[in-house]
C-alpha cells in the first residue's frame, strides 16, 4: 500500500513564499510522474505543476515563473516551491503520484494567501 504525506501549507501574506513537500511511502517499484494539483472553493481541481521521472516539468500558465516543482528520487519526495504568492493561489493543494500503473493522492494541505 502506498501512502502520500504532504506538509508545508499554511497562511502567508501576498508576495510571500511557501514550500510544499510530499513524501511517498510503501511498496513502490517505479514512480513515473509526480504532480501538484489544487482546488479552490467552488472550483474544479486543476493541475498546478508536474514532473516526470526524467525531470521534465510542466506548469499551469497561472503559476509559471512563480512556482518551481522538483523531486528527490532517492526519498520518493516531490516539492513545490511557491514564490510571489497571490490571494488567488488560495486552495487545498494535493499531491498526486503515478506509480506502478496506479494513481495515488495525498490528503491535501491548505494554502491561504491573505493579508
Describe this protein with a few key phrases.
globular, seven-stranded mixed beta sheet, 115 residues, four-stranded antiparallel beta sheet, mainly beta
Determine Rg (CA atoms, Å): 14 Å
The overall strand count is 11
Tally of alpha and pi helices:
0
Uncertain segments are none
Structural class comes to mainly beta
Beta-strand content bin: over 45%
Topology as a string of helices (H) and strands (E): EEEEEEEEEEE
Largest sheet: 7 strands, mixed
Global geometry = globular
Q: Mean pLDDT, rounded to whole units?
A: 95
How far apart are the termini?
40 Å
Q: What percent of the residues sit in helical stretches (DSSP H or I)? A: under 10%
Explain the layout of strands and helices.
Elements: E1 2-7, E2 10-12, E3 18-26, E4 31-39, E5 46-51, E6 57-59, E7 67-72, E8 77-82, E9 91-99, E10 102-105, E11 109-113
Parallel strand pairs: 2-11
Antiparallel strand pairs: 1-3, 3-8, 4-5, 4-9, 5-6, 7-8, 9-10, 9-11
Provide a concise account of the structure shown.
The chain is mostly beta strands and 115 residues long.
Question: Could you describe the 3D structure shown?
Answer:
With 115 residues, the chain is mainly beta. Helices cover 0% and strands 57% of the residues. It contains no helices and 11 strands. The strands form 2 sheets. Strands 2, 4, 5, 6, 9, 10 and 11 form a 7-stranded mixed β-sheet that branches. The chain has a 4-stranded antiparallel β-sheet with strand order 1-3-8-7, with no helix packed on it. A hairpin with a 5-residue loop joins strand 5 (46-51) and strand 6. The radius of gyration is 14 Å and the shape is globular. The mean pLDDT is 95.
